[in-house]
Amino acid sequence: QEPWRDGYRMHAYVTRELPELIGRHFPARRSAMGIFGHSMGGHGALVAALRNPGLYRSVSAFAPIAAPSQCPWGQKAFSRYLGPDQSRWAEWDATALVEGGARCPELLIDQGEADQFLERELHPHLLEAACRKAGQPLTLRRHAGYDHGYHFISTFIADHIRHHAGVLNQG
Question: N- to C-terminal Cα distance for the chain?
Fold first, then answer.
């Protein structure tokens, strides 16, 4: 909704414009793209993959906001960007997308168990339950003692890079 309707198109940028720019200026294989992110960016990566079947061959996230329609951060953002009609929110909520039939390659998610946002905002258990019920492949790794910060990401980023490289270098 206004005022973001015309100028804030991050999903279109990430899924269409950026791959086109990269393909035009670098020797990239558009048939071998992966996506990952952290927190709301992690959720964005999940949504990009779920809304665009076949676009990404590998997907991962660090501490994503897994069910934004069901947490204060997501409700605040969705009500401002998408408006008060909560039925519209489902198309931008990873858990709701999985529940509605969207599928993508196996998801790799790392979550710190000492994350200060885990209980109130992130809700990985909701995405985990939706994936289990729907048959969407998910590896959700929980790590004791890790919070939401960059030390957490720096500790496990090599695993994500190996995950993406392994998938993207197949075939």
Answer: 42
Cβ pair 115, 153 in contact under 8 A: no
- Among 171, 169, 167, which residue's Cα sits nearest to residue 58? 167
Active site residues: 39, 115, 148
pLDDT tens digits, residue range 2-37? 776 677 778 999 999 999 999 999 999 888 999 999
3 state DSSP class of 51: helix
Separation of alpha carbons 134 and 69, rounded Å: 19
Q: How far is 33 from 164, CA to CA, in rounded Å?
A: 9
Name the residue with tokens 């003692």: 145
User: How far, in Å, CA of 29 to CA of 71, rounded?
Assistant: 37
Cβ proximity of 40 and 65 under 8 Å: yes
- Tokens found for residue 160: 């994500």
- Residue recorded with tokens 């599928």: 103
Cα–Cα distance measured from residue 138 to residue 128, given in angstroms and rounded to the nearest whole number: 7
Our CA dihedral for 53, 57, 63, 68, rounded to 10 degrees, sits at -10
Backbone angles phi, psi at 85, to 5 degrees: -70, 100
How far is the C-alpha of 107 from the C-alpha of 59, rounded, in Å?
5
Which pTM was predicted?
A: 0.93
